[in-house]
Amino acid sequence: MNPIAKHFAVLAIATMGTSLATASCGMGRIQQCNKLIEKVNAAGTAVSKAGGGGKGNEMGDMAKSIDAAKTEIQGVQLEDAKLKGFQGDYVKMLDKISAAAKSMQAASGKNDMAAMQASLKDIQSASEDEKTIVTNINTYCTTGK
Fold first, then answer.
1. Where does residue 79 rank: exposed (0-12), middle (13-18), buried (19+ CB within 10 A)?
2. What are the angstrom distances between the C-alpha of 102 and each of 65, 96, 132?
3. How far is C-alpha 8 from the chain's CA centre?
4. Which residues contact 126 (CB under 8 A, 6 or more apart)?
5. How far apart are CA 82 and CA 96, in angstroms?
6. Which one of 25, 60, 96, 145 is CB 3.0 to 4.6 Å from 105, fit for a cystine?
7. What is residue 8's predicted lDDT score, i.e. its pLDDT?
8. What does the alpha-carbon distance between residue 83 and residue 142 come to, in Å, rounded to a whole number?
9. pLDDT at position 2, please?
10. Residue 16 vs residues 22, 61, 90: alpha-carbon distances, Å
11. Does residue 33 contact residue 22 with C-beta atoms inside 8 Å?
12. Residue 86 has what pLDDT?
């Protein structure tokens, strides 16, 4: 499993418990958290399936999956301002990963190892951003803070 797909698989596991732990939140926030988490988990599953072995030529398929996931996540109607902020942060992170995956695919086609390494670093950086965003979502959805 490639680094992107592996990270998204972990994300799906990490956020599944959040929907169960939201019982102490107000109903509006519970529903909104669950909607957002559902789409984030679905994104992780789709990206993991598309990621295959992480070869450069597979990165185009992964980028398409990420772009589709981004559209799904953007489509979640949220009223809670904090959740909207997390949604926007997550979409920006997906944009970074998608762009890096596309760059990696292009670099792979040219056998440009330096560009492939740079793309991988961009993906790893965005993955770190994702950890922070997911932690923020989980904390807010479980504690309201």
1. exposed
2. 12, 10, 24
3. 6
4. 93, 96, 97, 100
5. 21
6. 60
7. 53
8. 12
9. 52
10. 11, 25, 17
11. yes
12. 96
| Token pair listed for 55 | 């070869």
Q: State the Cα–Cα distance between residues 89 and 92, nearest whole angstrom.
A: 5
Q: How far apart are CA 122 and CA 125, in angstroms?
A: 5
Q: Name the residue ranges covered by the structural domains of the chain.
A: 3-143
DSSP 25: S
Query: Amino acid letter at 13?
Result: I
Contact at 8 Å (CB) between 107 and 121? no
- Sorted by sequence, the CB contacts under 8 Å of residue 82 that are 6+ apart come out as 140
Q: What is the pLDDT along the chain (145 residues), one digit of tens a residue?
A: 455 555 554 444 344 444 444 444 445 888 999 999 999 988 878 777 766 555 656 788 888 989 999 999 999 999 999 999 999 999 999 999 999 999 999 998 899 999 999 998 998 898 888 889 999 999 999 988 8
